[in-house]
Amino acid sequence: SAYRLCTMRKLPSVLARTLTSGTSGSSVLPDMSEVRSRLRDIVGASTNWRDHVQAMQERKALHTLLAKQQEDLPPRRMKDSYLEVILPLGSQPEIREKYLNVHNSVRFGRILEDLDSLGVLICYTHTKQEMQPRSPLSIVTALVDKINLCKKIIYPDCDIKFTGNVSWVGRTSMEVKMHMLQLHDGDYSPVLDATFVMVARDPENKRPAFVNPLVPETPEEEEIFKQGESNKLKRIDFSTASLLKMAPTAEERNIVHDIFLNTLDTRQEGRGGGELKTVSFQSRKLPPNSVWMEDAKLKGLQICHPQERNIFNRIFGGFLMRKAFELGWATACRYGGSRPFIVSVDDIMFQRPVEVGSLLLLSGQVCYTEKNYIQVRVHSEVYDADTREHQTTNIFHFTFISENEVPRVVPKTYG
User: Fold this and answer.
1) Is residue 176 one of the residues assigned to a domain?
2) How many angstroms separate the Cα of 284 from the Cα of each of 93, 315, 386?
3) Opening angle at CA 208, ends 227 and 110, nearest 5
4) Same domain flag for 36 and 169
5) Among residues 357, 364, 399, 400, which one has the least CA distance to residue 380?
6) What is the mean pLDDT of residues 311-329?
């Protein structure tokens, strides 16, 4: 089928074997609740909302522990940050309810939350200072570069294992590669691969902070590191080629013009026995088996309560991803008229943090379709009731596959 299958590619699997050589059986692996507990301990986060201001004040004193330059920090290896975490859906049925959807499979939005937490812990493991229980760094998610799935269904009654490590390091940013596997007939088989980019900031989350350099040790690790550097350069190129900064290419202009011509309403008008075709630019018609893009939207609103805060008392990035994914799924479900399955997640940019108490406005939009595939863009913004201003916080891109072929989505305006 056209469904895009992923495999645990050769390099990561070779690396995973190397990194796991010193790990023990799954019975002693930490679970996701332990991941979040460790994060709170590393940062010194308050578990009580009333104490959060004091907890943040106490973090200010950690400024003195920051490195003045990257060269002052000891280099680390990929294996130093390698972690394995279990999600015991099979062996601990009592946690299943939180992860269950109506189709009796795992809620993918919950998996996004877990990947986000694990990615941050992996980065803290890479940057940890011996003899310092608390980290002076505020490590936050900057970008979800890509998540590719190779299973349509994630089963709610089989254990899941997450593995991951830092795969590339800049001066203040880190790329993390994570894999998710699920237990079937005694073996863990791959479900997804994810690449996140995290940034390190000072204790008050105001300015960038240096992180430990990464030293690849084997040819496989060299290759993975090079790929991380290449990913960074692609992101820079992509940001400079934004339509808001640069005109479309000749090829892109032709595509836009073809779409426009296909939607013009051509009428036949007779004059003195002959026929003359007149076309009005204002008069547009929908091609057969198509939907106007402006009619393929869904909107949502979320009040950001303290329960959804992260260790820095902003709204947890994983929560934002879950809410955006669920709106994206609903948008694809309504558009295609059948159950959609997530295929990949691309380019989730975290442009600004979301404060507790914000009104979060989410807008889902089908922006491209092809055969059974539906591409959904979810735009999230916060509304400030005092200033009455809207500010973009995130843009999400999700690719779904529908059970049936879907109508073609057609744009009406240049935007």
Assistant:
1) yes
2) 55, 43, 41
3) 65
4) yes
5) 364
6) 88
- Type of residue numbered 54: Q
Among residues 217, 233, 248, which one ends one of the domains?
Answer: 217
Identify the weakest region by mean pLDDT among 2-6, 178-182, 226-230, 404-408.
2-6
Residue type, 409: V
User: Which one-letter DSSP state was computed for residue 77?
Assistant: -
Residue length of the chain: 415
Tracing tokens 């970008």 back to the chain, one arrives at 143
57 shares its domain with 153: yes
Question: How many domains, the chain?
Answer: 2
pLDDT of 58-82, one tens digit each? 777 787 788 898 999 999 999 999 9
Take residue 383 and report the two structure tokens written for it: 């509304």
For the chain, state the CA radius of gyration: 24
Mean pLDDT for 346-360 is 85
Examine the domain organization and report whether 298 and 210 are in the same domain.
no
In a domain, residue 270? The reply is no
**What are the tens digits of pLDDT across the range 253-311?**
898 888 888 888 776 444 555 555 566 667 788 888 899 999 999 999 999 888 888 77
CA distance 216 to 218: 6
| 338 in a structural domain | yes
Establish if 229 belongs to a structural domain.
no
Element housing 284 (H / E) = strand 274-284
For residues 55 and 191, state if they share a domain: yes
Here the tokens at position 62 are: 């950690």
Sequence-distant (6+) residues with CB within 8 A of 179 are 8, 12, 16, 162, 163, 164, 190, 192, 193, 194
Domain coverage including residue 360? 289-414
pLDDT number for residue 278: 62
**Cross-strand pairs, 399:** 344, 375
Report which of 204, 181, 180, 202 is spatially closest to residue 58, judged by C-alpha positions: 204
- CATH (domain of 315): 3.10.129.10
CA 63 to each of CA 133, 206, 212: distance values in angstroms, whole numbers, following the listed order: 15, 11, 17
Burial (0-12, 13-18, 19+ Cβ within 10 Å), 114? buried
